[in-house]
Design brief:
single chain; alpha+beta; Porin; twelve-stranded antiparallel beta barrel; 6 helices; 51% strand; globular
Amino acid sequence: MKTFWAGALLALVTGICGPAAAQPSQEAQWTMRVGAGALIAPAFVGSKTYQVSAVPALRLAYGDRFFASVEEGLGYALVSTSAWSAGPVVRVAFGRDEDGSSPFRIGGRRETALIGLGDVPTTAEAGGFVRYRWESWSASAELRHGIGGHDGLVGNLSASHVWRFSSPFTGGRGPGIISLGPRVSFASQAYNSAYFGIDPSQSLRSGLRSYSPEGGLVSFGAGGVVVVPVAPRTSVTLLFGYDRLAAAAARSPLIRERGSRNQAVVGLFATYEFEL
């Protein structure tokens, strides 16, 4: 679950952190967002078993320049204009344990499909991001390289359209947000081998046939977010998404025999934001 919910939150980060992302702030200031929620998602990327996890939602930011959170990682916009932002980013890809354990799981059975495949270590991913905004649309791209774990190259492309509405709980003072859009992810052979590959020793231990995946497309799908302010600094966020594994990832015996190409996620969060 650790790997999947981190990926799900990353793909839908504009919902928890995104009202500001959709419209750049006029004055830079330090802000902190704290909260928590529950997420229903596959136990790992490609699993057909769904689990419920308790997930923290924490974010520290300085205007549109600096951000730090579990979902977004640590980043700094070297370029920051009304339309463009770009800069370096470092994320943490949480590991995957073959025994199916997760400190965040609060519901659903433990996954056993990974037994014999070994653990995937937690990985630091360093790279860069580019984001572009025009009117109510936005698009983003990221490219990162794993360090100390899967040692692969990972990329994400996404776009979204934002609608704003008057929240019934705040008398119109805090606008609500609906964001919807497509997304796609791709990765190198090293990454796919770590998460979808099966070497001879793993094949012997797991009973799955050996498989050496190529790099390329990993998944494609869409995600949505609804942010409803319920007080001047407090919001409730509903996030949802669907992704379909493709290409080398979908051909893995792990996915074909013990998992599913169809991956869905639903989450509900409450957050409180304040200035530092």
